[in-house]
Amino acid sequence: MVRFECDYLEGAPLPVLEAIAKANLEQNPGYGFDSHSDHARDLIRQACQAPEAGVYFLVGGTQANLTVIASCLKNYQGVIAPQTSHIFNHETGAIEATGHKILSVETADGKLTAQQVRDVCQAYWKETHALFFVQPGMVYISQTTEVGTMYSRAEIAAIHDVCKEYGMKLFVDGARLGYALAAPDSDMTLADLPQICDVFTVGGTKQGALFGEAVVIMDEDLSKEFPYHIKQRGGLLAKGWLLGVQYEALFTDDLYMKSARHAADLAVKVYKGLKEAGYSFLYEHQTNQQLPIVTEEQLKTISQSYSVDHFADLPDGRIAIRICTSWATKEKDVDALLAFMKTLK
Amino acid sequence: MVRFECDYLEGAPLPVLEAIAKANLEQNPGYGFDSHSDHARDLIRQACQAPEAGVYFLVGGTQANLTVIASCLKNYQGVIAPQTSHIFNHETGAIEATGHKILSVETADGKLTAQQVRDVCQAYWKETHALFFVQPGMVYISQTTEVGTMYSRAEIAAIHDVCKEYGMKLFVDGARLGYALAAPDSDMTLADLPQICDVFTVGGTKQGALFGEAVVIMDEDLSKEFPYHIKQRGGLLAKGWLLGVQYEALFTDDLYMKSARHAADLAVKVYKGLKEAGYSFLYEHQTNQQLPIVTEEQLKTISQSYSVDHFADLPDGRIAIRICTSWATKEKDVDALLAFMKTLK
Amino acid sequence: MVRFECDYLEGAPLPVLEAIAKANLEQNPGYGFDSHSDHARDLIRQACQAPEAGVYFLVGGTQANLTVIASCLKNYQGVIAPQTSHIFNHETGAIEATGHKILSVETADGKLTAQQVRDVCQAYWKETHALFFVQPGMVYISQTTEVGTMYSRAEIAAIHDVCKEYGMKLFVDGARLGYALAAPDSDMTLADLPQICDVFTVGGTKQGALFGEAVVIMDEDLSKEFPYHIKQRGGLLAKGWLLGVQYEALFTDDLYMKSARHAADLAVKVYKGLKEAGYSFLYEHQTNQQLPIVTEEQLKTISQSYSVDHFADLPDGRIAIRICTSWATKEKDVDALLAFMKTLK
Amino acid sequence: MVRFECDYLEGAPLPVLEAIAKANLEQNPGYGFDSHSDHARDLIRQACQAPEAGVYFLVGGTQANLTVIASCLKNYQGVIAPQTSHIFNHETGAIEATGHKILSVETADGKLTAQQVRDVCQAYWKETHALFFVQPGMVYISQTTEVGTMYSRAEIAAIHDVCKEYGMKLFVDGARLGYALAAPDSDMTLADLPQICDVFTVGGTKQGALFGEAVVIMDEDLSKEFPYHIKQRGGLLAKGWLLGVQYEALFTDDLYMKSARHAADLAVKVYKGLKEAGYSFLYEHQTNQQLPIVTEEQLKTISQSYSVDHFADLPDGRIAIRICTSWATKEKDVDALLAFMKTLK
């Protein structure tokens, strides 16, 4: 059975695996104090055109999210995030377990707007006795979002402006950042990120690493303190060079963006193919998480041959499924899936 | 420069690397819900002769420690541990960050005794107003300890008896469990552990895995709840199969214990060689973390050719250094080091 | 200026003050281990007809809420509560600071329904990978609610049934419990509470004590552990007898319910008076927090002579104000306020 | 039976009680936003000669300690404190429950020395990989200490100097500050405190208030944020004016220091009387917690007529008991106790 349910089903592209194998019997100092990690940090700084940025490697996304958020907030502050956000929904209360409320905002399409952020802040700061309320201390968004939608550069920059106005940090979760940047309607590159937010991740797990999220921090104070937070939260990998060599490989010969473009191209193919076949979508976009709507009957039939994600139940009984592409997706599998799904209409 | 400062300098034995490479383009479901992880869990259960045990894979040691401890304790309880323990000293307050005090006990040699545990408990439970004190809720020990000493089966069993008496769980941190079991004076096998404690780890990171700690849980309730704790603490690896295939390889053809015996044999060689050369030790034992005492002068000379760990400063100005062997240590490097250190005496 | 903005503006009825003065120079053991506290606990158990209940005195409401909730939940569990609830809105993230998410539910009138609780639970428990979500572990409601509405006995009992079905505890915040029980349409007495929930508070601060909330616990295990939680959260009053003597006085000669009825009667008067004068209400009910709707102009005029709470802004620009009665409210002040507000229509 | 076991057995001096009674039917705004609290804050600022200090009233000591400490520390920092300190021993892990380790130091007499603080800091900051250790972020001491010993002005100032050198705040827990200042060998007044520390409490509970600790904060940023921390930790008293009027009374006509001197004078009497009678002491000093050493037999006899605290078991089987004086202690009771204890020698 061919699987499309998520974008982290396979391991890593060959150069990444080879880099690990090559470094395997080197003797590397622990905890990221090795030359591979240093080199990888430099490569990322270059790709982001942010020579002063702090770059830290963590193993996973929830870990990265909780560590970044807990290190940015004061005890009595919370993080503004969309109600569809990963941190609000899919991390077993990991943020709250660090003591912080998520100030969730209902969105039209998984994307927070600058106005919504401003509304939350205005409501808080006009309170006479604000001390009874959780102070908004930062904003969390994902690019692409958890429903596959995508922010434009201007949209993120506008949120960042509101953040600066209210003394908050903006954190962009880039677990699928490459897939966003490679999407046909993207108007950004990696080098834009340092301009329009305070912290972001350059996701590895879903985009060509066996595992790993690179946290890029613009704020110098936060950056200096971040390693302490990583260690305390259990996120410091003993053999940190494993993350170093993977990001070295991903940021050599443009492997990161090449892998992303592969997934992005196939995502467009999936979108157009299903559209043409008459499917509608929960949210319409061209990124690597496609959410076509099917009947229960259709899902059953599809599930006999393919593994897709049962994403959401619609009020009318139909189901939004998730079909993901990734760096590892084979075009022939996409073609076969599309052909198959066409027959169901 | 050859490095002896710790036992996690290299990656993994070839069969482990090959297992990852082989599974690389399979499509495995995430979060450990894959067949490799299932198989690895079975292999560990077999090796431990604990068919009912829960087995969970985490990436790192601090993560494993904080997740196990936080999941075992009630809010007002603390964990009894030696003052030399990793959780008390080397994890940036990771346990306290989950809200729990470590009830630290000064030990003669890094090993807690059953009597010491009993003393702590008796002192607590005889209090008229015990509610002002942190209730001892579990015991944490490491095998081997952070200073290389080792518990006998009877010593751990005696601690376990006290634990049962006072309604506490016993957690054995096995980051170096294999190296303990393979030591010449060991009187235990993996199958003993389930008999004499409630939770233990079968360490991978230091013993042949790229990364990974297997948490083995005897208590059924704790086991059922453990995945929730893992996820909440950011410890659930998206591509959990990476841990599965590594432990599959380690527990196939006895690779785990073979690797351990390699390190253990070389540890004995280091111990005997240094002893013969006239070195004394901070703690005398034959496990894979040897702690010979040198002068500052000697350390400088050694450091020109070898990387060793500056482990502890002695009151007389001398220094205990740490020399570790691992599955990856080369006998010729040990021979050269011993020859070299002999010349310094 | 006469104040109506809340129900905790004054100190305490004379018998409560006198009880403190009388015990002032006694030498009472600390921390609630005194005979007044014991007696007060007995009086409350009698009033609740719950001879086996645990009764604990805390100083304040937020403290009581966070201590009860943190002591009931496992790390990975959250508490279901209305979006209008005090814990969700007015406690600076105190619950999240203990590590727990509030699973908030939008309600029509500040009251959770059994069906809503069931919906949250069903959604959670049908998840294939529930471990990514916060497990509902308890339910929090307030009687009366934060908007003055009131549950019937059957409504609470129905929620309790769902709780039992899903292994959750039901916590009823009774900061204004007396005012609910004394309301004209109440169908409950104190003795009903132990039948229809697991933990509840008998509020003092707003109902005749200088300060104090009595936590009544039906669950034996929770009750036994509760003092440890109180102390750890900083909620154990050194001179616990101060709480004891106040509750002794409140539960002697029916002072608690007499005080409540005074407030309840005046609340009805406020409600009827304003209704008659042509005011509409944000939520229509007859309890001690009346929420009439006024124009900005009217609020300005009222505020020249009375202090009322600016409770909520309506979309049409009008404002819901809060007018509270309490045990200390004077009938002549209510009469004057009503007469005054009549002139504004 | 006359009680001497602690210094919080009685309520409050008459002027304090009268102040509450007088304000009882006033309508005071909640949460300390009332004129009594404002006035009390001013009186304390005057007494401390610290016109810019922030003054906040909390109900109890553990609450004050945990709120101050959690608001001063970064997540990865801990607080240096003596092993005999209240926060380390007697608060059920309340500090750790906020996520912070107490870096405990063994002391000769319950008093931390500047050198000990320096040693802890030097050990930390010389670490190559300091990120594995808990960073010392503040220092906690008590004046008088938990064993009745007392710091000189110079001793506290010296600790403060080390704190400033290492970027740490110094917190002086003044639960018994008045009793220290009134002791015969004191070389300080309230006005010294702002010069030699960053935060301190002016204890009420043990020194003439029914309850209450005034937290005085020199740091402007910390002061501004403190109310948020108080509310989040459940420490904001609804009827904050209760604290205001008590401190108003205590700081009118020098009642605070008059009460303290009464206790201090009787403490000297106890000390000299027992000394003369041939008793030795666990720690020898003249403050209000006297710790004479008695045999088990003697303790039994004493306990038939007096309530004293079984403070510590000595290795030789003897027992240090605690005899406290307070503002409420009667001289005739002290005389009788001394006469009685003389007969036991």
From TrEMBL, chains A, B, C, D:
Keywords: Aminotransferase, Pyridoxal phosphate, Transferase
Annotated GO biological process: amino acid metabolic process
GO MF annotations, alphabetized: lyase activity; transaminase activity
SUPFAM superfamilies xref list: PLP-dependent transferases
Pfam families xrefs: Beta_elim_lyase (PF01212)
Entry-linked InterPro entries: ArAA_b-elim_lyase/Thr_aldolase, PyrdxlP-dep_Trfase, PyrdxlP-dep_Trfase_major, PyrdxlP-dep_Trfase_small
Domain of life: Bacteria
Cofactor(s) needed: pyridoxal 5'-phosphate
All residue ranges annotated as the Aromatic amino acid beta-eliminating lyase/threonine aldolase domain in the record: 17-294
Family: Belongs to the threonine aldolase family.
Protein's name in the database: Aminotransferase class V-fold PLP-dependent enzyme
Species the sequence originates in: Megasphaera stantonii
